[in-house]
Each structure stands twice: as C-alpha cells, then as structure tokens.
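Translate sequence into structure tokens.
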Amino acid sequence: VYPNPTAEYIIVEPEIKEDAFLKKLTIIDLQGKVLLEKQFSSQVTKETLDVYSFKNGSYILHLNYSNNLK
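Result follows.
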C-alpha cells in the first residue's frame, strides 16, 4: 500500500497467489465503521482508491482472498 501517508489516494498491490485472488477490500476506521468496500471477481494486480474525503487519522485495510485467507 502506498503512498503512506496520503491525502488523496492509495494504491494497493495485493499479493498474487496461485490458488486465490483478492475477493474483497475493506477500509475501516478505528471505531469500526466501514468507509469503503470493494469486491472483485478476478485477480487484481493494482487498485487505486480515492481517500480524499477521509479525515486525517489511522485506518485498517482488510484484504479477503478467495480461499478465505486474510
């Protein structure tokens, strides 16, 4: 994930796995509120996410793979 820190966007390059693909990407604030969620049906090598509207702070990026790895 880069750039970090950022004010406008982040780029996520998920690990490429032979037997699985990135199924869902979720950004959660520290209070547990889901701010962004994207689902994928095939392998993603790079995803750019707009975080311009997010307030300054720390966030959790949760990646779910098709074989249920997290």
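Note: The CA atoms of residues 37 and 52 lie 15 Å apart.
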